[in-house]
Amino acid sequence: MNHSELKLPSNPIQEFVASKQIQLFQSLKQSQFTGELWLHSTQYKWVIYFYLGRVLYATGGRHPLRRWRRQVYLFFPEVAGKLMAKVNTVIEQSSTICWEYDLLCIFRNQELISREQLLKMIKQQVTEILFDLTQSKQIIYELKERKLNPLNNILIDPNDVVVEGWKLWQHWQTARIADRSPDTSPIITQPEQLQSRTSPKTYQALQKLLADKLSLRELALQIDQDVVQLVRLLIPYIQQGLIELVDIHDLTIVNNQKNQIKKQLIISIFDNNVFNEHLEPLLKDTGYYYLNISNGLETVADLVQLKPDLLFLEWQMIKNGGSQVKANLTKLQEELNKPMFLFTQKTGFLEEIQAKSTGCDRLIYLPIIPDTFVNLIQQYLP
Predict the structure, then answer these.
(1) What is the phi/psi pair of residue 158, to 5°?
(2) What is the mean pLDDT of residues 233-250?
């Protein structure tokens, strides 16, 4: 068969379940297909890269960047920060397969990650994509022949990951929200009712857990739980309409070249060096101008003249500063009309309420997840 002459099937595949996946992949294995298998649903598209009928890599779907970040932090925690910091550099270069795969192979060749780690990560990536394809109502596929050179000789039998993807799907069916995607994000829609129906400790835990609009998959990784176990914890509140599952966008990549044209200024007002140690390297790497002014709330006029695009403040400084500092904060908010983030280490329930009463846009807890935090900044500095 000449795969390059293959056209899109006129009839979509209904319910692309494990048996139909195996049938398609078996035909590619028998013909030793090398190239790209593109799969299209009504909303998303995925690509699986094959070499002689075996799987090299896969990407695409609703949240390719969120998924890749999760896998990086799960399988390569020691070098996850370094991997994420190299994304821009690799994207700007020509890729041999796709930038995600190329970057992983660079770190493998430098022996920063092991072959076993890389194999597990790619298997999990493909398994998750097959789960998402199973959940899609119908699929149209397209084959594109292409010369591909596996950089690390890691090839996966497609039948193995089909079985794992099907097990994942069967497990998700037990969650009582099987029609929803684990890429949706739980948000509190009725905070007052939720607070009245839960203990202060439970409400505080839910508020903190759901503050950053992460997907169910991301939250499960963050609290080190299976995603179905997480859903079972949330399902009573979902059924009562106190928490809803909503669609969220994928991450965006900070383009350093664009930032060099128009860099935005972030000013922090921190006494505590712990905050600067976390933030200064991160913000400089992403291309923002960053400046800390420890006495900023004492010199409001000078601060306004600098015209910052975003302000970071320290809760303990405001709390301990007395009425004058709080009055200066109010004045600063009125004159600047710019978003403000309030940073704190662990606080009690009452202190959290007091901190939120300052009128700042976001309450941020340390330690932060670097790329989650950068994505949050981008929401306020488009």
Answers:
(1) -60, -30
(2) 92
- Domain residue extents for the chain: 3-173, 185-246, 256-380
Residues 79, 112: contact at Cβ < 8 Å? yes
SS3 60: strand
Indicate the residue type of 310.
L
- Alpha-carbon distance 52 to 33, whole Å? 5
Contact criterion met (CB below 8 Å) for 374 and 254: yes
pLDDT(10) > 60: no
List of long-range contacts for 210-216, beta carbons under 8 Å, 24+ apart: 210/186, 210/243, 211/362, 211/363, 212/372, 212/376, 213/185, 213/187, 213/248, 214/185, 214/372, 215/63, 215/66, 215/182, 215/183, 215/184, 215/185, 215/248, 216/182, 216/183, 216/184, 216/185, 216/186, 216/245
Q: How far apart are CA 269 and CA 297, in angstroms?
A: 7
179: amino acid identity, one letter: D
Helix, strand and coil percent figures for the chain, each rounded to 5: 50, 15, 35
List pLDDT tens digits, range 46-90: 999 999 999 999 999 999 999 999 999 999 988 888 888 788 778
Question: In whole angstroms, how far apart are CA 188 and each of 107, 235, 346, 362?
Answer: 39, 12, 21, 15
Please tell me the least confidently modeled range out of 156-170, 239-253, 324-338.
324-338
To the nearest 10°, report the CA torsion of 60, 117, 144, 7: -60
Residues 6+ apart with CB under 8 A from 290: 265, 266, 267, 268, 279, 280, 283, 284
Residue 369, strand partner residues = none
Pick the CATH number of 256-380 from 3.30.420.40, 3.40.50.2300, 3.30.43.10, 3.90.950.10: 3.40.50.2300
Q: Which residue has the tokens 């020509």?
A: 94
The reported pLDDT for the residue numbered 149 is: 81
Query: How far is 272 from 314, CA to CA, in rounded Å?
Result: 8
Write out the E strands in 41-192. 45-51, 54-60, 138-145, 185-188
